[in-house]
Amino acid sequence: MSVCLIHVNQLHNGKPNQYKLVDIAEECMALWLNTLTNLSPIIEVSTGYNPKWDFTHKDGTTSELKICSSKVIQLEVSKSDGSLSGLSATKSDFHIIVHRGWNGILKQKVGKVRFIPTPVLKQYIAEHKERLTPIIREGDTISQSSICYPLDVWSLTYDGWVGDVPISEDSHGEVSYDFTIENIIRLNYNFTKTLS
Question: Would the pTM of this model clear 0.70, i.e. be above it?
């Protein structure tokens, strides 16, 4: 069994090893999706900083991975100085979003994995931007700070729920998701790989 824990704070810590840890998280996600789901297999994982996409799939589509430590999914739309970032920079066809959630059947906290077409997210922002309160995610400079909007997945026409994975939180509130294949909690049957 290959253990695959993703410690969310390490993906945003600004330390020299940050992108190496992001690359490891992306490899974990690719292995999880390719092993368990019927989504088009990921055949290439980008390395380092790539604002356009993180994964290339066998069918030619691309996807972007976003991992959140909270229930509130923050969709980045630009940098605070107006430069392109997040949804305004991505060229991906889909977004893979991991966030904190609740499994009502098991009555426990879980990590929710969603696979949502990028146009659905862009449409959501276009339709709801006026009523949403922007979230400023601070950086060291204005060009590093980001403007984000909260995403309410329940208001989407398609919420893209793929499955639930174990979540843990330490005494400092640091969140980790467990993408070890054998530890999956639940998979949406619409995404379940069929044995041939």
Answer: yes
